[in-house]
Write a structure and sequence with these properties.
- This protein folds into two domains: 231 residues, no CATH class; 75 residues, no CATH class.
- Helices cover 60% and strands 18% of the residues.
- The chain is built from nine helices and seven strands; from the N terminus they run αααααβββββββαααα.
- Strands 1, 2, 3, 4, 5, 6 and 7 form a seven-stranded antiparallel beta sheet that branches.
- The radius of gyration is 26 Å and the shape is elongated.
- The two termini are 25 Å apart.
């Protein structure tokens, strides 16, 4: 029995790694085609396009690992069904729980590798990729982060901050601070050319400041300040949010941003959902592999190996889209973050369990 389990694990692992390689290369090819249209604009070149695509590979591996696990497992099991090897395994005493355990054992290293890639490799590589893309497109080797056409807006208690852009080294460009009193009446506006973060003072040091102070209802006073220490909960780490989506950030960065947004009384649902999705994402590998088990055991007249692979690809795409859908619905409807993150896996787990139960009852 151990020999059969080792054989099954080996075949599934090889097929999954092969399909993951194929899928990553396919999506990398699509990314490269998308980038070729920008060659010649600004500082874009063929070398920078290849560099951008290469830096995005860890993110692609992270995104496609569950789909590759599904299709790889489905392919191996469908082949075993077609050649009646799975039937021989079952007759030899290998029960459905034992097959599921063998699949689970293959899923453990895949899920672990997926988590490590998504936590330690993909986020910095994705940030560097977006930096390379922005720098080359704009032709400016400094400005890389800009949320809206008017810049990045940040609210903290009675201060509204507008930052035109930020650099890769977290230098703020074009900072404006709108300071209000308790009655939300505008008191002063500070405009600075640039700002750098001081770890010693835990503040942003703004340079060349022009202050417009409102005195009364119709009088204003304008004067200059050489520097100003802006004490705020805003940290350089939060600026990474506007380079890559929250779903691709590290767990620590997501957690830090949630705390910062809570302190400034801003919505945190998107980041909380992204945090739970990040924590539960390796579970998707097991769900996808378990889902392959019932779909692989349909009789030949219900579709050959090619048809089952097509079904697997469609299931993987559906799972990916369903995950995005629940994330967006969770943000819009203010659902509990854990519910939004866990719902797709629960739905597919219920489908897989129901199909397995139905097949065993036949």
């Amino acid at each position: 029995m151990n020999t059969l389990r080792r054989y099954l694990r080996h075949e599934i692992l090889i097929a999954t790694l092969f399909l993951l390689t194929v899928l990553v290369m396919l999506f990398a090819f699509f990314d490269l085609i998308n980038e070729l249209g920008d060659i010649g604009r600004g500082g874009r070149s063929l070398t920078s396009a290849f560099l951008y695509v290469a830096l995005r590979l860890p993110s692609r591996i992270y995104e496609l690992a569950p789909v590759a696990a599904l299709i790889g497992t489905l392919y191996v099991l469908a082949q075993l069904v077609s050649s009646s090897e799975l039937t021989v395994m079952r007759v030899s005493g290998m029960s459905l729980p034992q097959i599921s355990l063998a699949i689970f054992q293959v899923g453990v290293p895949i899920a672990l590798a997926t988590f490590l890639a998504g936590e330690f490799i993909a986020p910095p590589a994705e940030r560097l990729a977006q930096t390379v893309r922005a720098v080359q497109r704009s032709g400016d080797h400094q400005m890389i982060t800009q949320q809206f056409s008017s810049g990045f807006w940040f609210k903290e208690q009675y201060t509204f901050a507008n930052i035109r852009a930020a650099t890769a080294s977290h230098v703020l460009m074009g900072v404006r601070l709108y300071e209000f009193d308790n009655a939300m009446r505008l008191q002063r506006i500070r405009s600075a050319e640039r700002g750098t973060f001081s770890e010693t003072d835990s503040a942003w040091l703004l340079d060349n400041i022009e202050v417009t102070e409102i005195e009364g209802s119709s009088r204003t006073r304008v004067y200059a300040e050489p520097s100003y220490a802006w004490q705020t909960v805003l940290r350089p780490s939060i600026l990474t949010v506007f380079q890559i989506p929250p779903e691709q950030l590290e767990i620590k960065t997501l957690f830090d941003n949630i705390k910062i947004l809570e302190k400034s009384e801003q919505p945190t649902s998107r980041f909380e959902i992204a945090l739970w999705v990040k924590l539960l994402y390796p579970l998707n590998v097991f769900v996808m592999m378990l889902l392959a088990l019932p779909f692989s055991q349909f009789q030949r007249r219900q579709g050959g190996v090619g048809f089952r692979l097509f079904v697997g690809a469609m299931l993987g795409l559906t799972f990916f889209l369903l995950g995005r859908l629940f994330s967006y619905l969770g943000v819009l409807n203010d659902w509990p973050p854990l519910t939004s993150a866990l719902a797709p896996a629960v739905v597919f787990m219920c489908v897989a369990s129901s199909l397995l139960w139905w097949q065993e009852r036949r």
